[in-house]
Amino acid sequence: MERTITITDDTGIHARPATVLVNRAGGFESDINVEYKDKTVNLKSIMGIMSLGIPKDAQIRITAVGSDEEDAIQAIVDVIKNEGLGE
């Protein structure tokens, strides 16, 4: 399962919201990844997310594979929207 999101926050995905995303992703059994510019990292890794350097207006793809993949994707999308990071 996957979803594509556009980042709208002026500072992109920086340390504080990345931490919120990692913490939320950690609550799921599924493998959850984020892809940006042909590079894919584990959404449960703060260093991985920070290494992507996701800026404003970036298109990112969230993917999840596992028993709770639908819930995982929805939870991550909710965090991105609730934190004002994207849509």
From TrEMBL:
Keywords assigned by UniProt, alphabetized: Cytoplasm, Phosphotransferase system, Sugar transport, Transport
Function: General (non sugar-specific) component of the phosphoenolpyruvate-dependent sugar phosphotransferase system (sugar PTS). This major carbohydrate active-transport system catalyzes the phosphorylation of incoming sugar substrates concomitantly with their translocation across the cell membrane. The phosphoryl group from phosphoenolpyruvate (PEP) is transferred to the phosphoryl carrier protein HPr by enzyme I. Phospho-HPr then transfers it to the PTS EIIA domain.
Main location: cytoplasm
GO terms (BP aspect): phosphoenolpyruvate-dependent sugar phosphotransferase system
Entry's family note: Belongs to the HPr family.
Residues annotated as domain HPr: 1-87
Compartment list: Cytoplasm
Pfam families assigned: PTS-HPr (PF00381)
Cellular component, GO annotation: cytoplasm
Keyword Metal-binding: no
CDD domains recorded: PTS-HPr_like
Protein name per its UniProtKB record: Phosphocarrier protein HPr
NCBIfam families reported for this sequence: PRK13780.1, PTS_HPr_family
Superkingdom of origin organism: Bacteria
